[in-house]
Write a structure and sequence with these properties.
Helices cover 41% and strands 16% of the residues. The chain contains ten helices and eleven strands. Helix 1 (8-26) packs parallel to helix 10, helix 2 (41-56) crosses helix 10 and helix 6 (137-147) packs across helix 10 (258-281).
Length: 282
Amino acid sequence: MSAEILNGNRLAQRIRSQIRRELKKRKFTPGLAVIQVGDDAASTLYIKHKQRDCEKVHFHSEVHRLPVETTQAALIQHIEGLNARQDIHGMLVQMPLPDTIDERAVIDTITPHKDADGLTLVNLGSLLLNRECITPCTPTGIIRLIELTGESIEGKHAVCVGRSPLVGKSVGLMLLNRNATVTYCHSRTKNLAEQTQKADILVVAIGKPEFITADMVKTGATVIDVGISYVAHHAVGDVKFDEVKKVAGFITPVPGGVGPMTRAMLLENTLKLATVSYGRQA
Ligand code: NAP
């Protein structure tokens, strides 16, 4: 048996086409601002990809590059400026920030109406309460990939390895909100394999290359590999793809799985925010 590959590139492309079609009907231009503090090479590359995605769907995008010595107060003031602008409907602050800056304080300066990453306390709190909100991009992309299997999430046992708010914790909530039974695992979990072997849906977001091996996976499981590590300049996931694909029912590749879907969900969130904003102005 060989697992069916969940192709994130293809699904993301389909989503961008849908966005272009939607935009033709709506006749406005969504605007996304990305703020970068410092010049971390990986962040610069991620931002470039985001800008290119915006071009593909004809969104307006701006990158605000601030020097590494920017103070928290100055960054907050900059965000407040963007909060006030009518032509910017979504924004995000590219992580990581310099150690001198409190990430949470910065994120929560973004008005929830412009929170393209879905990471403000208001949006995360709404996710917790299963209320309509802007949901974080990577978990939302993961749900779309799971939906691609055509199998129902309800009643399934989902195991999330990793509990960061950005990925593991939020995707667990999204699965719970869809009536999966959810187990969270993390660095203090004892007998991890015992948990992962029970998963109908296994989401792995730990950043440890090829950590999940075939013996840790239930036959026929849907395996979502979120991790990205660079080994000898190659992107490697948290799952040992070549052996796990022989036992899983569905599996995401790295690269080409969750990554492109994360970016597609950023576009969807921005379109959603712009639509609501124009609705408010109308
Ligand atoms: P993070 O904030 O560092 O969280 C890592 C999580 O993994 C923590 O909850 C940690 O547990 C857990 N963990 C670490 N070692 C473990 C082990 N041996 N066994 C079980 N759990 C373990 O990382 P993140 O932001 O969630 O990202 C995780 C990975 O996903 C990274 O490789 C990142 O690059 C990637 N990522 C990819 C995308 C994408 O779009 N493809 C988006 C975001 C992140 P504790 O809580 O106990 O410390």
